[in-house]
Amino acid sequence: MDLYNSVSYDNSRSLALSYSTSFGLSSRLFGSKVKPHIYAIYGLVRIADEIVDTYKGPDSGKLLDDLEASTYDAMKSGYSTNPIVHAFALTAREYKIDQPLIAPFFASMRMDLNPQNYDERNYKKYIYGSAEVVGLMCLRVFCEGDMAKYDRLKNGASALGAAYQKVNFLRDMSSDYKELGRLYFPGVTFDDFDESAKKAIIDDIEKDFSMAYSSLRQLPRTARAATVLSYEYYNELLKKLKRTRTDNIKKSRVRVSDYKKIVILIKVVIREKLRR
Description:
The chain is mainly alpha-helical.
């Protein structure tokens, strides 16, 4: 069984590193004990994203239901024939990531099956399930069973997850709308998206980042450098979006260059070493 467990975590790692260069960079800074569990969480999330974003078949809803059910079954038994689900279940069992924390994620994924116009309530519901609970799952791992620390930091973790998701929405506005028929920001239409609407969105994101920052600095050393790096990367992306005209945001995806990512990485590594 140890071999299968190891192979399952290796599969999650491979999946995570293949899909995101920015996540791949930051994840390398996690402590060795934390790292496989973060890959396991990312792996399950990635499979669900693939169902609703890439596959998009007529049976997507059933596949999502099956994935959720198999996840809960594996959490009970400690075993799945799907290596990604198996790794996640092992992590969930070890760090007490329970169904009430996972179910909102799948609920948000179901909201993507049928494009809709988001009001404020559904917007918050979607962000909570698609991003905030993922941050809370990671925080369970970071805190290694210290629930007092988890309770102290959970609001910051939720705010950071929300900020990341909103930045993604703004960055991906063009492809989300043109390829998937989605626009998440309430009260905003694609054609009428202008500088005023962009400013309101960015102001909201900056509030989330501000709320998250104090919690970020209190994370355990095994998680702090990696999380700070992702924070700095997304902050840089937000600054670039702030400088980008709305008509350009509606045409193509805004990116941070690989060179800039490396510069941010070096700065964070040096700063974190000086803190020790």
